[in-house]
Amino acid sequence: MDINHHNLGALILAGGLGQRMGCQNKGLVAFGQLNLIDPVLNVLKQHCDYVAISANQDVAQYQAKHVEVWADVAPWLGFGPLAGVCSCEAHFPEHIEYIQVVPCDSPFIDQQVIEKLSQQLQQSDTLAVYAQTATQIYPVIFQFKRTAIMHLKEYLHTSNKRSIRQWLQEVGAEAVNFPDDAVFINMNDLQTLNQHLPKGQKPCL
Question: Is the pTM of the predicted complex or chain greater than 0.85?
Answer without folding.
Answer: yes
